[in-house]
């Protein structure tokens, strides 16, 4: 029977820890981080090696159409759209934005492919040029701070600061559920970005967007999302390609160019 991803992760963690001569806390923590990156990298490689349909149209029909509730960067009338599901705590999501340098995830990806580059740099260029509409959707799955940060970004959106807050979160990742995205920190980020504090705090404290974040994850799961980052490239509302993980900027740029033809 094929082992689950979690079973494989635990097995790798145990193997690394058991083979560590001096089992101090920092080494064990490092082992767990490495195990997580190994599993994520395996998923990435598996996704990149998946067969591509010859007609370049991916057989997925359950992706929710881009609509009023979406956060869109770029021209909302552009024929080509890139819908990306992400988790603000996901290290590989952070890597594809390239807002931090030399993170463990980036080092891991460049070890696999020395020419790897963050694909969101190019995506933002297409969006700013008006050629592509970039749509960000939450698929918060890594714990409480994932859902909290997703809700906080939406609260920032109430003050027209979603994208600034979105970028700030990805630029300030610091492990999973270790307090980096605690409520006090999320509120401090809002002040740093110049948001009106009382309105932001009220939005976050009352869980205004808790259901919306949960619904976004459910919609993503229905569309076949099993991890992040996961992207769908659409042309005139139809899926023509996908992004199966932290693919290189060159690869994603070519997929977008193909869609623009």
TrEMBL record:
GO terms for molecular function: oxidoreductase activity. Residues 52-261 form the Thioredoxin domain. SUPFAM superfamilies: Thioredoxin-like. Keywords: Disulfide bond, Membrane, Oxidoreductase, Redox-active center, Signal, Transmembrane, Transmembrane helix. The chain crosses the membrane at residues 28-45. PROSITE patterns: THIOREDOXIN_2 (PS51352). PANTHER family: DISULFIDE BOND FORMATION PROTEIN D (PTHR13887:SF14), GLUTATHIONE S-TRANSFERASE KAPPA (PTHR13887). Belongs to the thioredoxin family. DsbA subfamily. This is Thioredoxin domain-containing protein.
């Amino acid at each position: 029977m094929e082992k689950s991803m979690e079973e494989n992760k635990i097995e790798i963690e145990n193997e690394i820890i058991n083979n560590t001569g001096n089992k101090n806390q920092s080494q064990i923590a490092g082992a767990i981080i490495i195990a997580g990156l190994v599993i994520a990298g395996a998923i990435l490689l598996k996704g990149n090696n998946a067969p591509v349909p010859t007609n370049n149209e991916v057989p997925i029909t359950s992706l929710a159409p881009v609509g009023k509730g979406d956060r869109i960067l770029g021209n909302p009338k552009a024929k080509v759209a890139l819908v990306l599901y992400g988790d603000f705590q996901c290290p590989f999501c952070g890597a594809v934005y390239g807002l931090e340098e030399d993170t463990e995830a980036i080092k891991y990806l460049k070890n696999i492919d020395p020419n790897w580059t963050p694909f969101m740099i190019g995506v933002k260029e297409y969006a700013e040029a008006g050629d592509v509409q970039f749509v960000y959707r939450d698929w918060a799955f890594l714990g409480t701070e994932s859902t909290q940060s997703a809700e906080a970004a939406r609260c920032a959106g109430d003050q027209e600061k979603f994208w600034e807050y979105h970028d700030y979160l990805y630029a300030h990742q610091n492990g999973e559920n270790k307090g980096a995205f605690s409520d006090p920190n999320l509120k401090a980020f809002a002040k740093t970005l110049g948001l009106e504090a009382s309105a932001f705090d009220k939005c976050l404290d009352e869980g205004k967007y808790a259901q919306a974040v949960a619904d976004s994850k459910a919609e993503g799961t229905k569309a076949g999302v099993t991890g992040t980052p996961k992207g769908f490239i659409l042309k005139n509302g139809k899926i023509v390609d996908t992004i199966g993980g932290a693919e290189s900027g060159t690869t994603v740029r070519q997929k977008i160019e193909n869609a623009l033809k």
